[in-house]
Amino acid sequence: MAEQRRINGRLIALLCLGIVVFNYPLLELFSKKRLFLGVPLLYLYIFSLWFLFIVVLALVIRKRLPPMSTPGKKNPGPNNPV
Description:
Elements (H helix, E strand, L loop, with lengths): L1 H20 L2 H6 L5 E2 L2 E2 H24 L18
Antiparallel strand pairs: 1-2
């Protein structure tokens, strides 16, 4: 149960961080007419952070999900007691 609370806390922290980094004040910092390798700085900021959030979210969720069962073994559950 403590593990579940820790993971839920991480998901909430990730949500709060996402709200902050995709909000107006930080977006305004990157809303300049500068290019990095031909890509506007704002687009680079948004898409790189979006990618990082997806990766971090996948890592957090991966710890949350139970391991996959192997073929031939039954998963314990209400219909399949061990």
